[in-house]
Structure formats: structure tokens, C-alpha cells
């Protein structure tokens, strides 16, 4: 039986015409464009709640994560700035890395707090912390971020005093409340509330459990992570129904990222193996959020954005184990109709599902092909809660509020920069996509080089006629390559891509 929580609230908010909207951003982890039925008519996964959410508002078909991997996307969403402008030029933050968001950086929760919002982050963080030793010194201040092979990294926990507060996390980034497990496959394996762990780390992760080595609380169960953070989010929504101020909830899911850990209620619910079952649990979670908003009278005046931090790795792993195989063996393609997967510079790495619902303001049943980046949420929410003038201050974020409110049909963005796990750049403009390099830019590198053929120095695709990026026409259009290459170099050199940027 599927889990249902039927808690209720005795009081609900009475929405007025001038009330600022509540905002919920639900960020799935490693969910592919082709996982949702509303995006893929051949999907082997039932996603009825997400399909209904798409029908209630706008479904974007050309939305992109700021990166094809986790940490840089989360930085881009919360700051409106590409993470490759920081010290993280490729890859992600690894276990025990220091914070990526600068202390003085304006963030989405900081901005909304100035406008009277209560703010919360529930779920995955993966943007770094400052861990203290017994003397209160930070153990990771001098460690280079993003260096997976750093000698001694996995032993750093031995120098940490876990009884002390953890700095540099969601609270310092502007959230009033945090609850989550940071990263499910990194130590410490424990829930964190605000800036303290909430259970004793009295054992070490067994080798049979998925994830990196390190301390764990007894009884830690990977299958309980999603239900726990879902319940916490529902409770937060119910609590906010009693408050006068609007709220912002950044609900960062841990699914369907490995460890593939659906609860027993969802095993066998899809036709795409355990990965598909975990996506089914994601759909259930979204249903719980919508139900809580509806029960508390907040649904009509709440903006709900559902999206993913990057494409799917297309894996179907043994439950909580490290062995993985392709989910495509079930006839399900999480990237359909695109080439590539998570980490890649190809579309499957960064083109993501993106649904925006706001029943009182956004017309239902819309489908938009506008080029949209998740880094645009910063400027859009700024405009919706104050004025569009303020939205021009973010380096790589542009205001889509008029598109959401059906006041604008012409393109907002002229182009958009993409980035892969290996630091490869690409830029889309009109029908064209220029990639500054060979191969995928991801885990697979450039397998075509082994074929013996001489490849062009870069890649150029016409996405209007070749959405699957099968025909590299780099050598056929040198004028387009030159133009897009120059634009990309300009954006990197000048420090911003927003044409409305006020310096």
C-alpha cells in the first residue's frame, strides 16, 4: 500500500489579491527528461502527480540545468550565477569540502527574506560545510575543492568534533531552517537539523552499503531518507499555514540518485526496475506536497517549480548496492529523445523536465519551447516578489516572469551556456548548439577517438533538424562556429552573460 499522510490543519491562510505567493522549488536528483510520462509517451514509469502538475501550469521543453552535474547546478539555482565562475571549474564538491557559496553572495533565500519570506531548505545540500575540530578550527579551509583523489580525504572525519555546530551551510546561505542528510552517498550518515547533527555517530558505514566511507548513526536506513524529508516538508507547509508571512521551501530530493533505495511500498510499481520505482516515489512525494498545499488552503497562491539538477545516469542499481546496469534494458530511456546522459555536454546531460504551476496566476495547459535555464529562477522570483529592475543584478539569470504570466511570447533568452562534469563548455542560440571540444565531456570521454577517424576540433548541431545531435556540422558552418565561440569567450571574460546586467 502506498503511504498517505492525512494530517490536517484547523486554520488556513486566506489569500488576498495582493498577497505575495508562497514559493516551492522541488529539485529532483538525477531525474531524466524522459522519465516523466508527460515528456515521454514511451516512459515505463507512471508519474500521474507530475503529469497533473504539468497540466495545471507551464511545461518547459527547452529547460536546462546550469551544469550536467549536481553541485554547480545547485549553486546556479541559489545564486543566479554559473558555478564555473568560482573555484569549481569542473566536477562536484566531494566529502568534507568547504562551502562553495561565498559568504557575501546574494542568494535566493537571502533575497526572499528581505521581502518578508520565511525560508527553509529540506533535503540534499551538497554545497559544502565548514567542519570543526575539537579546538574549533576548521579542518577543510585549505583543502582544494572538487579533488576526488585527494590523499587522506576519506580520513578527515577523524579530526572532526561532531558535537560542535557546522558552519557555512544552508543557514549561512540565508535559510531560516534546514533539515536533511547533506549527500546520501557521503558521510556523515545522519540527519542534520539547522547546523547540528541530531544523532550520535557511533558506528562506521559498512562496506556493503552504498556510498563513501565514514561515520554513521546506528540504524541508519537509506530507504527512510525520502519518506523522512517528504514528511518534514509536509509538516513545514502545514506550519506555514498558520503564519502571516509567505514562505519559500527549497525541497531538494535525494531521488532517483544512487543509492537506489525505494521503500518497499514502491518496489515493482514501475516497469523500469528499481530506478523506475524510485522515480515513482518521487512522483508520490510531489503528490504529498500538492495535497498538503490543497488541505491548508495555500495551493492557489503557491508557485510550485518541479525540475531536476541534471540528466539521468540511466542506471538501475541493486537496492542500496554498488552494482549498476543500464535502465534501458527495460525499454525505458530516461534521456529520450536526446543523446547523452548525466555529466555529458550533450542534451541528455543538462536538458531537464521543468514544470511551473501557480493556479491563481498561471494559465493551465501551457507548453513553452523557450530557452530557459534553472539559473533564471533567481531573477524571475526577484521580479515576481518586487520589481524587474532588481532582477538585472544577477550575472547569469534573466527574468521569465512575463512568460510565466502569459504576458510575453517572444524569446527572453538569446542564448544559454552549458557545462559538463569535465569542464567542457557549450552554448545554444536559436537552432544552433556549439560545443567547445570533442566527445561527451562526461564520464565516457571521447570514445569516437578510438575509431581511428579524425574528428573536428569542436561540435556544431542544428537542434531544429537534429535534436539527437547525430550530425556534427562543425566543418560546414565556420561562420556560426566563429560567432558562437566568440560569444562564449566574451561571457567567460566579462564575468556575466545577462545582457541586462547593471555593473
From TrEMBL:
Region (Disordered): 307-333
Protein name: Arylsulfatase
GO molecular-function terms, A-Z: arylsulfatase activity; metal ion binding
Residue ranges occupied by any Sulfatase N-terminal domain in the UniProt entry: 21-385
Protein family membership: Belongs to the sulfatase family.
Keyword match Membrane: no
Keyword Hydrolase attributed: yes
Pfam families: Sulfatase
Keywords linked to the UniProt accession: Calcium, Hydrolase, Metal-binding
The organism of origin for this protein: Portibacter lacus
Entries under SUPFAM superfamilies matching the protein: Alkaline phosphatase-like
Gene3D superfamilies: 3.30.1120.10, Alkaline Phosphatase, subunit A (3.40.720.10)
Amino acid at each position: 500500500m502506498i503511504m498517505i499522510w492525512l494530517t490536517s490543519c484547523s486554520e488556513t491562510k486566506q489569500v488576498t489579491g495582493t498577497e505575495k505567493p508562497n514559493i516551492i522549488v522541488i529539485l529532483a536528483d538525477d531525474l531524466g527528461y524522459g522519465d516523466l510520462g508527460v515528456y515521454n509517451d514511451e516512459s515505463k514509469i507512471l508519474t500521474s502527480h507530475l503529469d497533473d502538475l504539468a497540466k495545471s501550469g507551464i511545461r518547459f521543453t527547452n529547460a536546462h540545468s546550469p551544469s550536467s552535474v549536481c553541485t554547480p547546478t545547485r549553486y546556479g539555482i541559489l545564486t543566479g550565477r554559473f558555478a564555473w565562475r568560482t573555484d569549481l571549474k569542473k566536477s562536484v564538491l566531494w566529502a568534507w569540502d568547504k562551502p562553495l557559496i561565498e559568504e557575501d553572495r546574494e542568494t535566493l533565500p537571502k533575497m526572499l527574506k528581505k521581502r518578508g519570506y520565511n525560508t527553509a531548505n529540506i533535503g540534499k545540500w551538497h554545497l559544502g560545510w565548514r567542519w570543526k575540530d575539537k579546538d574549533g578550527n576548521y579542518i577543510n579551509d585549505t583543502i582544494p575543492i572538487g579533488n576526488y583523489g585527494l590523499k587522506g580525504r576519506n580520513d578527515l572525519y577523524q579530526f572532526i568534533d561532531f558535537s560542535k555546530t557546522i558552519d557555512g551551510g544552508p543557514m549561512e546561505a540565508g535559510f531560516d531552517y534546514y533539515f536533511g542528510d547533506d549527500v546520501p552517498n557521503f558521510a556523515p550518515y545522519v540527519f542534520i537539523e539547522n547546523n547540528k547533527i541530531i544523532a550520535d555517530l557511533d558506528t562506521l558505514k559498512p562496506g556493503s552499503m552504498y556510498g563513501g566511507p565514514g561515520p554513521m548513526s546506528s540504524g541508519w536506513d537509506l530507504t527512510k531518507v525520502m519518506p523522512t524529508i517528504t514528511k518534514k516538508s509536509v509538516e513545514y507547509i502545514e506550519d506555514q499555514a498558520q503564519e502571516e508571512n509567505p514562505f519559500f521551501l527549497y525541497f531538494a530530493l535525494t531521488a532517483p540518485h544512487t543509492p537506489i533505495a525505494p521503500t518497499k511500498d514502491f518496489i515493482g510499481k514501475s516497469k523500469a526496475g528499481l530506478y523506475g520505482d524510485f522515480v515513482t516515489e518521487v512522483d508520490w512525494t510531489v503528490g504529498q506536497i500538492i495535497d498538503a498545499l490543497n488541505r491548508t488552503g495555500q495551493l492557489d497562491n503557491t508557485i510550485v517549480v518541479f525540475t531536476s539538477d541534471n540528466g539521468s545516469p540511466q542506471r538501475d542499481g541493486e537496492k542500496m548496492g554498488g552494482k549498476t546496469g543500464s535502465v534501458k534494458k527495460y525499454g525505458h530511456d530516461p534521456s529520450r529523445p536526446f543523446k547523452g546522459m548525466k555529466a555529458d555536454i550533450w542534451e541528455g546531460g543538462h536538458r531537464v523536465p521543468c514544470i511551473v504551476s501557480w493556479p491563481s496566476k498561471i494559465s493551465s495547459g501551457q507548453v513553452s519551447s523557450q530557452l530557459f535555464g534553472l539559473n533564471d529562477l533567481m531573477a524571475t522570483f526577484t521580479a515576481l516578489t518586487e520589481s524587474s529592475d532588481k532582477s538585472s543584478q544577477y550575472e547569469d539569470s534573466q527574468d521569465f516572469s512575463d512568460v510565466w504570466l502569459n504576458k510575453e511570447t517572444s524569446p527572453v533568452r538569446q542564448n544559454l551556456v552549458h557545462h559538463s562534469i569535465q569542464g567542457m563548455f557549450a552554448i545554444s542560440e536559436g537552432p544552433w548548439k556549439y560545443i567547445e571540444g570533442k566527445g561527451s565531456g562526461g564520464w565516457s570521454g571521447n570514445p569516437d577517438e578510438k575509431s581511428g577517424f579524425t574528428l573536428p576540433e569542436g561540435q556544431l548541431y542544428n537542434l531544429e533538424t537534429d535534436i539527437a545531435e547525430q550530425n556534427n556540422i562543425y566543418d560546414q558552418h565556420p561562420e556560426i562556429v566563429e560567432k558562437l565561440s566568440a560569444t562564449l569567450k566574451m561571457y567567460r571574460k566579462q564575468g556575466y552573460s545577462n545582457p541586462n546586467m547593471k555593473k
